[in-house]
Amino acid sequence: LSDATAGGIEEDAITLQPCLQYVDLWVTVSEQEIADALVSLLQHHSKLVEGAAGCGLAAFRQLALGGQLEGRQVVVVCCGGNVALPVLQGVLQTGVVWH
User: What is the pLDDT of residue 99?
Assistant: First the structure.
């Protein structure tokens, strides 16, 4: 669901160094967690985003449920709507809406 975040780094990539410098924590999320994030955002906020944005939201939920964000101010950027119709159909069939 999020090919762009699968770990491949292009030669001469300019984004790697800032990520190494500024990212405090890397969180691994499953395809199911991404799908759940996408359908939940669509259901609760009528916002359709691509899988990469779903990764951030899924990671946020994972950390929040684990109590790791207690007392902290957190922002999750959910942008990008590049979703192919077959991918969206699959997400709508498998994703579970958060309550």
Answer: 86
